[in-house]
Amino acid sequence: MLRISRRILICQDAVERKNLTEGKTFYARLIAIARGKILPNRLDAIEWITYDLFTSMRTRDEELTEEVLQGAIMCLSGQVDEARMNCADMSALIQHRVQEGGTEFVAATIRYGMELHLASETLLSITAITNSFAELGIIVNDICSFDKELRDWKTSSQEGAHLLNVVQRMADDTGIPYPAAKRVWWILCRERELHHQDLVAQHMASNPSCDEGLATYILSLEYAMGGNEVWSRTTSRYNQRF
Question: Residue 153 has what pLDDT?
Fold first, then answer.
C-alpha cells in the first residue's frame, strides 16, 4: 500500500508543474502503462516503476488490482478535470475533492492488502459508510494541506491552477479568516466521526449476520481515517504546525 500511495503522490507533484493539456497527456500515458497496454520508457523512473508495480500486483490478484487501478484513474483524472474550477457550493466541492483526493483508491488498496473480494452489491450496501470515510478523509487532508496549497497557488502560473480546498471555501462563504475556518472544520470533523460511528452501528444492527470479512473491512476504514489524520498532521509534505 505504501509503495503505490507514494506513486500517486509523485504523479501529483509531476502534474503540478504542467498545464491542463500536458497533465491530461501525462496521465493518459501513465494509465496505459499501468494497464500494461504499452511498455514504459525505462529511462523514466515514474513510467517503469508504475509498470513494474502494477505488473507484480496482477500476478497476485488481477481482479483486486483492477479495482485499485480504477480508483487511481478516478483520482488522477479528477486532478486534470476542468470541472474542478466550477464547484458551485460546498457539497459539490467536497464531492469533487473526494474524486480527485484518492479515497476510492485507498479503499481499493485496503481490500487488495486484505485479499478481500466483495461483490458489487455488498459494496453498495455500505455506501453511506464509505462515503463518510471518503468525505472525512478529504476534509482532514484539506485542513492540513491548506497552507501549502495556498503558497503553491499564489506562486503558480500554470493553466488550471486553482485553489480547491474546503478551508478556502468555508472562509469565502462565511467571511471568517483562514485560521478560524480550520478550527470550525476540526470541530465538524469530530462530529463527522460520531456520525460515522452511528452509520456503522446502524449497519451492524440491521445486518446481525454481517460477513466477518466485511466487518473487518469496515473497521479497517476507521483505522485508515485515523492514520490519515496522523499522517496529514505530521508529514513534512505539508509542514504545518499545530
Answer: 84
Please compute Rg for the chain using Cα positions.
Answer: 18
Q: pLDDT value at position 61?
A: 96
C-alpha cell of residue 94:
467536497
CA distance 208 to 227: 28
pLDDT in tens, 63-120: 999 999 999 888 888 777 777 778 889 999 999 889 888 888 999 999 999 999 999 9
Spatial distance between the Cα atoms of 146 and 232, rounded to a whole number of angstroms: 11
CA–CA separation, 105 and 6 (whole Å): 12
Q: CA triplet 187, 189, 193: central angle to 5 degrees?
A: 120
Residues 46, 11 contacting (CB under 8 angstroms): yes
Among the listed residues 221, 5, 215, 228, the one whose alpha carbon sits nearest the alpha carbon of residue 118 = 215
**What are 147's three cell numbers?**
497552507
